[in-house]
Design brief:
heterodimer, A: about 180 residues, Rossmann fold, five-stranded parallel sheet, 6 helices, elongated, B: about 240 residues, alpha+beta, Ubiquitin-like (UB roll), Alpha-Beta Plaits, 2 domains, three-stranded antiparallel sheet, 7 helices, 10 strands, about 15% strand
């Protein structure tokens, strides 16, 4: 197949219980974004603002699972993406949000909204629009099958680039020394 | 010149001196076998099983197996490295290893092994245990969240510092590190910040206070080169040996 007729791969991305740092690191591949966009097109992603993902080749998820909405989004991605990738420490291990896991959720909310002075006027937010927090924060692989993991907080732009180019070219993605980082 | 006895490690001859273990002989010969609880300065413990090799067809810990009984040793095989990856994964899932916020990140042996073996995820369900820290000592912080029960601090205190500061208590999943004080607090032990036991922790359990991130992430020990290269550089080499 020639370069011109090769179908672009559809890629969806999202951030669940993450800080968007991994997405910033993805953007940090800088001018290589142009090369990337010759091979892929984005479906649902904060970069396109498409709200739901259609059938995709690759789904990339930043952040772990901390509330009910995260679970729905993750399942939507799994149902639509042939390959699902956990990107960054939170998606892979639960990360910083999971540091609340040894605390009681009710006590956490009480401390933040009732005990400490804040903007919530002395009540725990209960708007039905707000997704319910989960008792514990989970890494993605505890909820759906994940095909690939890119650790790092965030993974470096070079690590993301190496991973994506390997995957797009049909190689088994492999991060060597200097690219695989848990911090 | 006397011919030293030898065994085959992944097909290559590794000479050894009587009394050496497979690990000692391999490292002295410049051959790396992944290891975690083994430290050249202390009595081998054989508990982490990272150094498990196939010795004469049987799986054995290279750090405790006398070189004298080995004729053929396999270490760098996909099968063994797969098992090693699983061991590292289980250690990560069992404790609270939040590398991005750990002061030992970049200098951590567990992490460096993960990098070197290509561990991309803990894979298992994380246990997220509840383990309080002990900040009682003015100069040393104990963060039990990261303990991997390697007993290096126990051995260092006993064998080098000549003290009994640390020990493991409990069994199975309830096994945990304790300190030798009625109160259970580090400040009430005779530990000193200059002790070998404080220096030897391979993960981020025993930390000197007020060191923190003085060396930034990215400029730390295992950021420079993989642990497989550094373990060889660290290993006691036969340079001083009398070549008779």
């Amino acid at each position: 197949m020639t370069e011109g007729t090769r179908r672009k791969l559809k890629v969806a991305t999202t951030s669940l219980a993450g800080c968007f740092g991994c997405h910033m690191s993805l953007l940090d591949i800088d001018e290589r974004l142009f090369l990337l966009l010759e091979r892929i097109e984005f479906d649902r992603s904060p970069l396109t603002d498409i709200k739901h993902c259609g059938p995709c080749d690759i789904g990339i998820i930043e952040g772990g699972i901390c509330n009910a909405e995260n679970v729905h989004v993750l399942r939507e991605f799994r149902a639509n993406c042939k390959i699902l990738v956990a990107m960054g420490a939170c998606a892979v291990t639960g990360g910083l949000p999971a540091q609340r896991n040894h605390l009681d959720l009710g006590l956490c909310l009480q401390e933040v909204y009732l005990t400490d002075p804040g903007v919530a006027q002395g009540m725990i937010p209960n708007d039905p629009e707000l997704p319910l927090p989960l008792d514990k924060v989970h890494p993605l692989h505890e909820v759906v099958k994940i095909d690939y993991f890119i650790p790092g907080c965030p993974p470096s732009a070079d690590a993301i680039w190496k991973f994506l180019t390997d995957l797009i070219e049909g190689r088994t993605p492999k991060l060597g020394h200097g690219l695989i980082h848990y911090d | 010149m006397n011919e030293r006895p030898s065994f085959l490690l992944d097909g290559d001859e590794v000479p050894f001196d009587p009394g050496q273990t497979v690990m000692q002989a391999a490292l002295a010969a410049g051959r790396y076998i992944p290891h975690l609880c083994y430290h050249p300065e202390f009595t081998p413990h054989g508990s982490c099983k990272l150094c498990t090799a196939r010795v004469n067809g049987r799986l054995m810990a290279a750090c405790t197996t006398p070189a004298g009984i080995a004729t053929e040793v396999e270490s760098e095989t996909e099968e063994l490295n797969d098992l090693r990856r699983t061991l590292v994964q289980m250690l990560f899932a069992e404790g609270n290893h939040f590398c991005p916020s750990c002061e030992r990140s970049g200098n951590c042996v567990l992490q460096a092994l993960g990098y070197d073996l290509g561990v991309m995820t803990a894979g298992f369900r994380h246990l997220f245990p509840d383990r309080p820290v002990d900040a009682s000592h003015p100069e040393i912080l104990l963060d039990f969240n990261r303990c991997i029960l390697c007993e290096l601090c126990v051995r260092a205190a006993r064998e080098v510092d000549g003290k009994h500061v640390f020990s493991l208590a409990g069994r199975g999943i309830g096994k945990h590190l304790i300190v030798n004080a009625e109160s259970g607090r580090l400040v009430d032990t005779d530990v000193k910040v200059t002790d070998k036991a404080v220096e030897v922790c391979p993960v981020g359990v025993i930390l000197r206070k007020r060191v923190g991130f003085a060396t930034p992430i990215g400029a730390r020990r295992y950021d420079q080169s993989p642990i497989s290269a550094q373990a060889l550089a660290d290993a006691p080499r036969p340079l001083e040996r009398n070549h008779d």
